[in-house]
Design goal:
Helix 9 runs parallel beside helix 16, helix 12 packs parallel to helix 13 and helix 15 packs across helix 16. The strands form 7 sheets. This protein has a 7-stranded mixed sheet. A 6-stranded mixed sheet has the order 9-17-16-15-10-30, sandwiched between helices. It has 3 domains: about 140 residues, Aldehyde Oxidoreductase, domain 4 (2-Layer Sandwich), CATH 3.30.365; about 190 residues, Aldehyde Oxidoreductase, domain 3 (Alpha-Beta Complex), CATH 3.90.1170; about 350 residues, Aldehyde Oxidoreductase, domain 4 (2-Layer Sandwich), CATH 3.30.365.10. With about 750 residues, the chain is of the alpha+beta class. Helix content is about 25%, strand content about 25%. The structure holds dioxothiomolybdenum(VI) ion. Dioxothiomolybdenum(VI) ion binds next to loops.
């Protein structure tokens, strides 16, 4: 053990990549200048079900500058289809187990049926319009109402992670005996991700070696997936993805376009840039599925839960059993002896849905904590009091104690900052002119990922006294480059100004895709491990070196600050040590394997509070205030953590009031295909957002006790807003998003 000086950790350091981003020097995967670049435009199917009977490519091929048109007749067959496993696991991670253009079948609207490659983007787009496609169309199944009578309970969902059904206790008996029951159905429109940067892959072959510049949450995931699909060894594929302009889950799994870019580049013998249009972002990178959730609560007259039943119905693709794991939240976060959770799926003409920010929890918590609000209302209990009454210190499903919680403190500090105390429980009694005013609250929870592949990072100190720390992860806007610079500085005992974090490259030590709010926890663990190993190595060199002033000191007495090792009155810098010994640098690799099969429940908690104003005549809902209190373990950077949580809360506002996409039942096409129709909150919609950080210590989850802030901010927001709408108006809206017409 060596003593550590409290340092950069937790400080609200500005983003180290901030200047590169605002000045435009940060390069994204569609901005890589390569000589002789060609451009690929993907053509999507206009029908949602059936087959392509003919594609006449002659007119397109005759156009100037057109290099190739690939269709199901000409695209090479894939070598192997890997199974769908979440990229966090560190395996190949295709977003679906269907690869387009292997035959003439059409499973969903927008499915890739051709790739046109030309010497300019405009020519590729123009030529794509000249394709003459003939289809044989069959009626699609797309909506819940079309699929309701053909459902099944899958064995597992969510890439094999979650069982289709789970239970404890006797729910039927408990519901029978309950003093009071709440039984309600909640419906949800589908959601699309829409990060600022549309997905893009730029592919370049050099002989049989491939370089991909990919907008991805995990360069290693892209490398492994493309390797399996193409049958090209991983050693010959390098994936670079330094900067990624947001993702929220649509770049968590590897979608077909990344492999199509490589295929197109091989076909034309030139580097190929394949960028999705904004419209294609609605059909090519997954979405949060349309769904219906049914919650039944049983409780005693005092308000103690005796049973929770939570069922979900949703469409999945023809090839994968995918549902976001929405009902799990009901099994874990409240004390309750009986639980039953079930997913029902039906095969529809859709691509496989995918992760979307707080996958499962965000939608599940809307149902659970809306139902809890209904229960509180029926019992005449304060909603916060009902939560406290059913608080659990153990994971209610496994019975294992939480590795850390902080939930009580979140309720307390959130309520205090929001001004919850003394709330008049009666709906529809507060008014401000023509506005009806109401407040609502909800619990927030998000699991700490238990996947168990080793994470690696490398730390190097140079003879000039600067340090380079490396890990493969891309920076997709979370602040990871900044935070890992801080973790490296802390571990090495150096100032952040002298440390540089290099990222976004499969040639660097591997890190699984940063998914499921696990990025900060797993990457910091590897970086911390590498940095502290290197510090220990340098201290050992100094105390063992007869030429060092520290020679003979006990390593445990050596403190490192600003790159200077000190024991008592003796000191020497890393730099002097390396120069004297003719060493250009020193380096160490750190490795960390996430814990699994350990006797703890691992969950991040928070509490959400919202105040809404509803126009009494127009039904317009405005969110006036939001307060969120969160206990994400150790906070590595107060500024970036707050930004993540605030962004999550505003995302929750979008989920509550704006975000919606629908399939046209007849055509199986999405109604919204641009940001003109698909609404997200803008600054004018954003209320005052207050974030309370409740720091809890956790020495189980990972070395620095980091539980993650990427998704928890969103969980519970929609319930808090819906509950506030009920408080304001007396109207219970069990549907997302809540629209004006729901309140007229
Ligand atoms: Mo996150 S939606 O798990 O990438």
């Amino acid at each position: 053990m060596t003593a550590t000086i409290p340092s950069a950790l937790g400080q609200p350091l500005d983003r180290v990549d901030g200047f590169a981003k605002v000045s435009g020097s940060a390069r994204y995967s569609a901005e890589i200048p390569l000589p002789d670049m060609a451009y690929a435009y993907v053509v999507g199917s206009r029908i949602a079900a059936g087959r392509v009977t003919e594609i006449d490519v002659s007119a397109a091929l005759a156009e100037e500058g057109v290099l190739a048109v690939l269709t199901h007749r000409t695209l090479p067959k894939i070598a192997e289809q890997p199974p769908l496993i979440p990229s966090l696991a560190g395996t190949a991670a295709p977003a679906q187990t269907f690869f387009p253009m292997q035959d003439d079948t059409v499973h969903y609207a927008g499915q890739q049926i051709a790739v046109v490659v030309a010497d300019t983007w405009e020519r590729a787009q123009h030529a794509a319009r000249l394709l003459r496609v003939t289809y044989e169309e069959t009626p699609p199944v797309t909506t819940l109402d079309q699929g309701r009578d053909r459902t099944y309970v899958p064995e597992r969902i969510f890439g094999g992670l979650i069982p289709g059904r789970s239970e404890r206790g006797d729910v039927n008996a408990a519901l029978q005996d309950a003093d009071i029951r709440v039984d309600a159905t909640y419906t949800y429109a589908a959601n699309n991700h829409n990060p600022i940067e549309s997905s893009c892959t730029t592919a370049q072959w050099d002989g049989d070696e491939l370089i991909l510049y990919d907008a991805t949450q995990g360069v290693n995931a892209t490398q492994m997936t493309v390797s399996r699909l193409l049958g090209v060894p991983m050693s010959k594929i390098r994936v670079l993805g330094h900067y990624v302009g947001g993702s929220f889950g649509c770049k968590a799994m590897i979608h077909a376009h990344s492999t199509l870019a490589a295929m197109a580049a091989r076909e034309v013998g030139r580097p190929v840039k394949l960028a999705l249009t904004r419209e294609q972002m609605f059909t090519s990178v997954g979405h949060r599925e349309e769904q219906e959730q049914h919650v039944t609560l049983g409780a005693t007259r005092e308000g103690r839960l005796t049973a929770i039943r939570h069922h979900k119905l949703s469409p999945t693709s023809h090839f994968d059993d995918w549902a976001e794991p929405s009902v799990g939240v009901s099994s874990q976060i409240y004390a309750c002896p009986a639980y039953e959770g079930e997913y029902r799926l039906f095969r529809a003409n859709t691509m496989t849905p995918t992760f979307m920010r707080a996958p499962g929890e965000a939608s599940g918590m809307f149902a659970l904590d809306s139902a809890m609000d209904e229960l509180a209302h029926e019992l005449g209990l304060d909603p916060l009091e009902l939560r406290l009454l059913n608080h659990t210190d153990v994971d209610a499903m496994s019975g294992l104690p939480w590795s850390s919680s902080g939930l009580r403190e979140c309720y307390e500090r959130g309520a205090q900052r929001f001004g919850w105390a003394g709330r008049d429980p009666r709906p529809g009694v507060r008014r401000d002119g023509n506005w009806l005013i109401g407040t609502g609250m909800a619990t927030a929870s998000y699991p700490v990922s238990p996947l168990a592949n080793p994470q690696r990072a490398r730390a190097r100190v140079y003879a000039d006294g600067t340090a380079l720390v490396q890990a493969a992860t891309p920076e997709f806007g979370t602040g990871v480059a900044t935070v890992m610079t801080q973790v490296a500085a802390e571990g090495l005992g150096m100032s952040v100004e002298r440390c540089r974090f290099e990222f976004g490259d499969t040639d660097l030590p591997n890190i699984a895709a940063a998914v499921g709010s696990a990025g900060a926890g797993m990457i910091s663990a590897a970086v911390h491990s590498a940095a502290t190993a290197l510090r220990g190595q340098l201290i050992a060199s100094a105390v063992g070196d007869p030429g060092s002033p520290l020679h003979g000191a006990d390593p445990v007495d050596v403190v490192v600050r600003d790159g200077v090792m000190t024991a008592g009155t003796a000191s020497e810098s890393y730099r002097d040590l390396l120069v004297r010994n003719f060493r250009p640098d020193a380096e160490a690799v750190g490795q960390w394997t996430p814990p699994h099969d350990i006797p703890y429940g691992m969950m991040t908690f928070g509490a959400q509070f919202a105040e809404v104003a509803v126009d009494a005549e127009l039904g317009l809902v405005r969110v006036r205030r939001m307060t969120g209190a969160f206990a994400p373990g150790r906070v590595l950077n107060a500024k970036t953590a707050r930004s993540q949580l605030m962004g999550g809360m505003l995302w929750g506002l979008g989920q509550a009031l704006m975000e919606a996409n629908h399939m046209e039942p007849d055509t199986g096409r999405w109604v919204s295909a641009s940001l003109g129709e698909y609404l997200v909150p803008v600054n004018a919609d954003a209320p005052d957002v207050a974030v309370e950080l409740v720091e809890v210590e956790d020495d189980i989850v990972n070395p620095l006790g980091v539980k993650g802030v990427g998704e928890i901010g969103q969980v519970g927001v929609a319930a808090a807003i819906a509950n506030a709408v009920h408080h304001a108006t007396g109207r219970r809206v069990r549907k997302l998003p809540i629209m004006i017409e729901d309140l007229l």
